Amino acid sequence: MPYKTNQDTRSTGNPWVPSIDAFKGGSLSGDIQCDYLIIGAGFTGLSIAYNLLKQFGQEKKVVLIDSHTLGSGASGRNSGMLGPGIGAPFHRLEKKFGPEKARTMFQHTLDAVDSSIALIKREAFDCDLTVGSQFKVSTNSSNDQQLRLESDALHRNGFELNTYDEHSVQAIVNGPRYRYALEYSNTATINPVKLLRALAEKITALGGEIILNSACTELEEGHAWVGKKRINFERAVISMNGFSHSLGIQKGRVIPVSTSLMMSSPLSEQQRQQLALKTENAVIDNRKIFNYFRLTADNRLIFGGGAPFYSTSGIIAEQRRGSDGPGSVYKELSAGVNKYLPDLTGLHIEKVWTGTIGVTLDNFPVISSYRKSIDSVIGWCGHGLALSLAYGAAYAQQQKESSSQTGLYWHRKKAPYLSPIPLLPIASNSYIRYLNIMDNLRGG
Ligand SMILES: Cc1cc2nc3c(=O)[nH]c(=O)nc-3n(C[C@H](O)[C@H](O)[C@H](O)COP(=O)(O)OP(=O)(O)OC[C@H]3O[C@@H](n4cnc5c(N)ncnc54)[C@H](O)[C@@H]3O)c2cc1C
Fold first, then answer.
1. Where is the FAD dependent oxidoreductase domain (predicted)?
2. 15-77+193-254+365-417 placed in CATH 3.40.50.720
């Protein structure tokens, strides 16, 4: 399969980045004072800033800083699939937490998708919003059984969803290996970079200040340092997700992990027919190390997943420079296309890229108070788009009510501990390798 990187976008490795680069933000000329300082301008930080400004208007000064450009972490690099789910498949949540708690958790994620779509519509954010369905598909007898258990548990708990057998799943996507599908309806796809920019412009219009290329280097009760410049705050929120360890937050607990995507040229009419996937639908397979895909508004295939890997500081620097990631990434993603979408021929891949997410051992985020005046909202794992986008409204509400109690499981002091820092790369990569072997033993 040919692979050619588009020279126009090679400087970023991410086709959507030029639209973010056009957003410049303000600059930090000296020490400043604010009511709320938000550290990290991904969807979590932007959502919190937007909602605080909506809640308090000009009454509170809201400042958002980022070490790099807008959305230069996971938010500007993801596949733009807004779907439900958190922690584990529903039947496992039910087993671990009991039906009531599991229902609350899952409903929370459905609400996050709804409120994200509602926000985009209400503010008329131009981000190629396409509402449709997300299909979870099985690929072998083992994950097929798991998917059926999940769908039974969801039905039993009153969640309405369609399921598809081996034959009818082919009408959703032409993937001969797919055995069964579960449909989450009213999900959506977006162009995340367009949304980041629209949100950032709205925040600025509401009176918020976004300061880019300004890394927080030290954080204390009531003040933060950006190099030698000091920012005094009443309250701060750390929204640095997979980069939080650089400030010593949830070290060894929220692990920086790289995941990968590639994007094709626009598909021809013949390729659209070979794929048989509607633009409004997205597909995720049910393996432990899974693939997922969707079409963009201009009919490009975005295909992602494969084995993630620990993000060393060198890998993060490469991502920021716009590297395509190791050659193995393209090889693995291409192998995924060939294996699961074998009838799709002549695919021309234009771009490959990786991004760093914050992963916890139990796959739940961790929302906590780091210090008396500092909150931390991180560890969204692989499915944080809708959740991080929706989170700001809950945060602003809590601030208004001066409360910190939500009752949600992931509002907790700490995520589970994986290993001491020097062993993290080995521990993380070994665990990922183990999951991959399990999938392969079960037939892929
Ligand atoms: C390839 C890929 C595909 C994905 N696909 C999906 C998907 O389809 N659906 C889904 O739900 N989720 C997906 N995700 C996950 C989703 O993108 C994340 O969960 C979400 O974007 C997290 O947003 P965030 O704002 O918390 O973190 P980030 O976007 O990572 O933001 C953290 C920010 O903190 C900044 N920062 C770091 N250090 C400092 C510092 N010292 N000072 C100031 N700022 C700092 C970073 O520059 C960054 O901008 C995907 C992720 C990747 C990488």
1. 35-397
2. no
